[in-house]
Design a protein that fits this description.
Layout: E1 4-7, E2 10-13, E3 18-24, E4 32-38, E5 45-51, E6 56-58, E7 66-71, E8 76-81, E9 90-97, E10 112-113, E11 117-122
Parallel strand pairs: 2-11
Antiparallel strand pairs: 1-3, 3-8, 4-5, 4-9, 5-6, 7-8, 9-10, 9-11
Amino acid sequence: QVQLVESGGGSVQAGGSLRLSCAVSRYSDRYCMGWFRQAPGKEREGVAIISSYGNTNYADSVKGRFTISQDNAKKTVYLQMNSLKPEDTAMYYCAARLSFPCPIHTSIGYNYWGQGTQVTVSS
């Protein structure tokens, strides 16, 4: 069993920055850690993925603005969000998948989820 706890959400003006954190109860040898988001009335979408090997992938809408990283010693995954836009407003979820590959366009296979943290970007 893997437990995930997100933190770091909040409200910011457009152009601002936030850093989300996801505390992970345990890692496996092979895993994918991802950040997903869901805005009201929209489907959940993948934002950024990082594998146990450190490979990353991003949604086109956030490339160049968001950076996913991990600190294995702290068992924490981060999402640094810069140049935030109002369309980034959503509930952000951390998720874990204990096998490869690490898809970003689907949440299928990500069996562990945090409770979510709200990000609100005002114009």
